[in-house]
Task: structure prediction
Amino acid sequence: MNLIEHLEALGEGKEVLFKYLGLCSEIHDLTGMNALKLLKEYFKTWEHYSGDEIYPVPSTNKNCSAEEYYDSSFNLWSGKQGKLRRSLCRHIAKEMRKENE
Result:
């Protein structure tokens, strides 16, 4: 499975290796790639981008930042956070497919 296929699978609900880690960690663990360097430009074109390339998924708690939410969560891939992360995966996969056409 290549990177685009993996992102598409994550976007459709594939289980992640570690639910307490975000997308960059997931990609790094699977590929050994510097995922932030690879993906950060795609983050910026995602409609829900938090404005922080280290923590691109916005907090779903109005009382904390994206970083604070990430640092305090034990499952980033369920509920509203999970929906946002899976949306980001689909967005990145779609943009990468466009580039490869």
